[in-house]
Design brief:
By secondary structure, this protein is an alpha/beta fold. It has a single domain (about 5-230), classed as P-loop containing nucleotide triphosphate hydrolases (Rossmann fold), CATH 3.40.50.300. About 35% of the residues lie in helices and about 30% in strands. It is built from seven helices and eleven strands. The protein has helices spanning about 50-55, 80-90, 105-115, 120-130, 150-160, 180-195, 205-210, and strands spanning about 5-15, 20-30, 35-40, 65-70, 70, 90-95, 165-170, 200, 215-220, 220-230, 230. The strands form two sheets. It has a seven-stranded mixed beta sheet, sandwiched between helices. It has a four-stranded antiparallel beta sheet with strand order 2-1-4-5, with helices on one face. The two termini are about 20 Å apart.
């Protein structure tokens, strides 16, 4: 049986806020298999984004272990972890996180530059992905010349540039109107259904979470329920 693309075992995360210690995650274990579509839900302060950051190795847990393709991140230094993360995970943020001085094409080419891909090849890849997300006529536009939905499509294209195993989306429709949000969800659904991408998505909207195959519900830093294809666990 193939190993999970991401696996966490009994992870805890405590933030030291001076005199107060905040336990954001409290003993979570979860497997994410290749091709999964997992949504993470819970009230404000439940640990949703912290869990997403730990699952995607943006944040190291205080205790417990995170495995990416079977490799424990505790054994990696920061530079080694950055390489593994850059090759395995593509990120889509609520606030887009595009570089304002770069146009759409340059933003999508950026992760390929970090991977050492030659200029001609990274331009070709970026143009193809921008066409896939319906932005072939916006390649020269900077973020401030694009609508919110268009900026999020650039962010998706950037996430796809290195052909990652996993797409991590933190409230990907949170800053969008309903029509633009529906377009973004269709793209994410297509990445899962037709491109075989593993999707990890944080959302506070049940109608969005229900598009996933598995819904993970958090409260007070713990998993309180997992709903999988209509079956509660």
């Amino acid at each position: 049986m193939a190993q999970p693309v991401i696996k966490v075992e009994n992870i805890k995360k405590v933030f030291d806020m001076g005199e107060v210690k905040v336990r954001a995650l409290d003993g979570i274990s979860l497997d994410v298999e290749k091709g999964d579509f997992v949504s993470i839900m819970g009230p404000s302060g439940s640990g949703k984004t912290t869990l997403l950051d730990v699952l995607s190795a943006l944040l190291r847990p205080s205790s417990g272990e995170v495995y990416i393709n079977g490799r424990p991140i505790s054994k990696m230094d920061d530079s080694g972890l950055a390489v593994v993360r850059g090759q395995t995970i593509g990120f889509i943020f609520q606030t887009f996180n595009l570089v304002s001085r770069m146009n759409a094409l340059e933003n999508v080419m950026l992760p390929l530059w970090f991977q050492g891909v030659p200029a001609g090849k990274r331009k070709k890849i970026a143009l193809e992905i921008l066409e896939d997300v319906g932005l072939s006529d916006r390649v020269d536009h900077k973020p401030n010349q694009l609508s919110g939905g268009q900026r999020q499509r650039v962010a998706i294209a950037r996430a796809l540039a290195v052909d990652p195993d996993v797409i991590v989306a933190d409230e990907p429709t949170g800053n969008l109107d309903s029509a633009s949000g529906e377009q973004i969800l269709k793209i994410i659904q297509d990445l899962h259904d037709n491109k075989g991408k593993t999707i990890l998505m944080v959302t506070h909207e049940p109608s969005i979470a229900e598009k996933a195959e598995r819904m993970v519900f958090l409260k007070d830093g713990k998993i309180v329920k997992i709903l999988e294809k209509g079956v509660s666990k």
